[in-house]
Amino acid sequence: LQGAYSTAAVDPSALQGAYSTALYGAPDAIDAETLRVVWPRLLPEAARRLIRVRCGGVRARDAPPEYVYERHFLQRHALWVHRPPGAIDAPAADGEWVEVAHCPYGQNANKTFAFYFAAGGSGLWLNVGRSLRFDFAGGKGDEAVAVAHRALADGDASRAARAAGVSLKDFARYDTAQFARIHGKTWSAETMTEIVALTLPGGEADTVAPALQKLRCGPRASLRPCAEDNVAVKQQLDCRLPAVDGYFAPRSDAGAGPAARAILDASHCDLGRRGPRR
Question: pTM score, two decimals?
């Protein structure tokens, strides 16, 4: 672990032992190709002390993956593994299980649909079922995609169906809607895939708890039903940064979780800035 974390480079093989067993209930369950999120409080303290994160900017294409604390994505206990600009996630096939992360977003009152990020390494799995696919590929087509995304964020299936060019009856036959190449506000050069759950219990204002009956935990090869005391679930139940007047407070005792907070401080990061403290 010492060598793996001394320069903040990600060596997934260092996560395949006790960390993988804690998160998945089995060793060797980390997929190095899809790893996007790491939960530092599941790492030994000695390993956490050696982690340094980037707190601003985007890494070069030929640089090794790095841990980055990204508050836009709301998981206050997580470090995100960022990839080079231009790296694009392939959309999930119908019926595929995908690791996801979800957190109640701000003051969003939408109780109809919950938005999940595809996040390899989260330990929590969602089946996309029959999926409608959108892509923020750039160009004129993005306008309709943005309308559909906004409509679902507002809980308006009729408007989303019109933007997708399908009837409301056909739209109701889909289980999820995938939005490829979503840009984060503070890491705009990198994209992620957002998956909107159209049929799962719970909405954007809820934690993952209402959907647990449909979600799965464990390694991909042997998925099992989730319970609220499952380690992977617990990482996401207490996930949100504090909100003040509808905006996320940059720093507070209720902000980043203790393990993430210690790493941020050791890396001289300030959540209220886009770069290291001077």
Answer: 0.84
What residues contact 76, with CB distance under 8 A and at least 6 apart? 238, 239, 240, 241, 255, 256, 257, 260
For the chain, give the number of residues: 278
What 3 state SS string does the chain have?
CHHHHCCCECCHHHHCCHHHHHHHCCCCCCCCCCECEECHHHCCHHHHHHCCCECCCCCCCCCCCEEECCHHHCCCCCEEEECCCCCCCCCCCCCCEEEEECCCCCCCCCCCCEEEEECECCCEEEECCCEEEEECCCCCHHHHHHHHHHHHHCCCHHHHHHHHCCCHHHHCCCCEEEEEEEECCCCCCCEEEEEEECCCCCCCCCCCHHHCCCCEECCHHHCEECCCCCHHHHHHHCCCCCEECCEECCCCCCCCCHHHHHHHHHCCECCCCCCECC
* pLDDT of the chain, 278 residues: tens digit per residue: 222 222 344 567 788 999 999 999 999 999 988 888 899 999 888 888 877 776 654 444 455 555 555 554 568 788 888 776 667 788 899 999 999 999 886 555 667 899 999 999 999 999 999 999 999 887 777 889 999 999 998 899 999 999 999 999 999 999 999 999 887 655 556 788 999 999 999 888 888 999 999 999 999 999 999 999 999 999 998 887 655 444 444 443 346 778 887 887 887 765 544 444 43
